[in-house]
Specification:
This protein is α/β, with parallel strands linked by helices and about 375 residues long. Helices cover about 50% and strands about 15% of the residues. The protein has 17 helices and eight strands. Residues about 85-90, about 95-105 and about 340-368 have low confidence and may be disordered.
Length: about 375
């Protein structure tokens, strides 16, 4: 029985997901409660970006307790803003809409038609709750993703250049709101290009462990046939694609590094050696309807917040001792479909055994 808990440090990678972002709020709340957990960089997109900037602002103002209070304040503000006149014109708040009527309007008209003045209540919410000067001068590094409209490429906004426009850009769904312009460049939701960015945080952060908080299930059984089901399915596939791409890049670099002329030096070596960890909301969100992302229901927020706290607590109990020493999620197994490899890794971690990656198993088998 261990009587001593060593201090660990983590980057956090926060996926977007509308109302389901309340799960991430719960994860952050539990991590902040543990004084033996320190934080490096927060890489985040859309609802994840709102969580990240609330975390950074609160931490700058009042440390751990300040961050916990700020996260609650922001989510309570989202709930209180959940009235039709605020919701119908904003991508983030609209995603919590109680009424399907606006969704029907949005599917028929451009936001430049039904919101010609570009009214944006999320700007007011963020301006009233977040001190961006404190964020820029604070200790928490940020990588907030938005997508350039012209090229489809990701733009990553960092702490020193953080602004309300950067968060609005990260959460800008083009079917619901005007593109957000920053320095003459138009941006849409970061989920189209990085949800969230894993490669950059692994390459740039001096902290060598990154905890991914994943909200959207990678697979859902059953053929969608209704209009809403199809739209929800398309959105899930679209916004999961950048995360899968990043995992493929990481696994390719790792496979190359294990070769005869592998990547042992230079910037890519840091990517090959970076340790990833995962808290997955899947068991709590997979059974929820697509419409649940569109409801500003405090009961849903409370449920997901509690679920996030529980999963973070379980993760700390199981994997705290591995942080700084080994990876606790097999990225290839969880994201690219190698279920057998995933089962092997879970068994190895549970028994405190050294991990042998799937690719290493193949190489070893070929030599036998």
């Amino acid at each position: 029985m261990r009587l001593f808990k060593r201090k660990i440090k983590l980057n956090l990678a926060l996926q977007g997901g509308g109302a389901h972002g309340a799960f991430t709020w719960g994860v952050l709340d539990r991590l902040l409660e543990d004084e033996m957990v320190d934080f490096g960089c927060l890489s985040a997109t859309s609802a994840g970006a709102v969580n990240a900037v609330a975390f950074a602002a609160g931490f700058a103002e009042g440390g751990r307790d300040g961050a916990r209070s700020k996260l609650r304040e922001v989510w309570e503000a989202v709930h209180k803003a959940g009235v039709p006149d605020l919701l119908r014109l904003n991508p983030f708040l609209y995603s919590f809409s109680r009424s399907p009527a606006v969704a029907q309007v949005a599917s028929l008209f451009s936001p430049y038609d039904f919101n010609p003045l570009g009214f944006d209540p999320l700007r007011r919410l963020l301006t009233e709750t977040i001190d961006f000067d404190r964020v820029r001068s604070g200790p928490i590094e940020l990588l907030i993703a938005a997508t350039e409209v012209d090229t489809g490429r990701a733009r990553l906004f960092r702490r020193k250049g953080m602004s309300v426009e950067a968060i609005l850009a990260s959460a800008c769904l083009p079917t619901l709101h005007h593109a957000v312009e920053i320095d003459g460049v138009a941006y849409w939701d970061g989920g189209f290009s990085a949800n969230p960015d894993l490669v950059t945080v692994a390459l740039e952060s001096p902290v060598r462990d990154t905890l991914i908080v994943k909200l959207a299930p990678l697979a859902k059984t059953g053929l969608p046939t209704g209009a809403r089901e199809i739209a929800g399915h398309v959105n899930r596939l679209t916004f999961n694609a950048p995360l899968l791409r990043d995992v493929e890049i990481i696994e390719t670099v790792r496979a190359t590094s294990r070769g005869l002329f592998g990547v042992r030096r230079g910037p890519l070596s840091a990517l090959a050696r970076h340790r990833f960890h995962l808290i997955d909301a899947g068991r709590h969100t997979a059974s929820l309807s697509a419409e649940s992302k569109m409801k500003p229901d405090w009961g849903l927020f409370t449920y997901l917040h509690g679920a996030g706290r529980i999963e973070a607590h379980k993760w700390l109990d199981l994997h705290r001792r591995h942080v700084g020493r080994r990876e606790t999620v097999d990225l290839h197994a969880r994201f690219l479909g190698n279920a057998a490899g995933h089962a092997d890794l879970e068994s190895a971690v549970a028994n405190d055994e050294p991990r042998e990656p799937p690719a290493a198993k193949v190489a070893n088998a070929s030599r036998r």
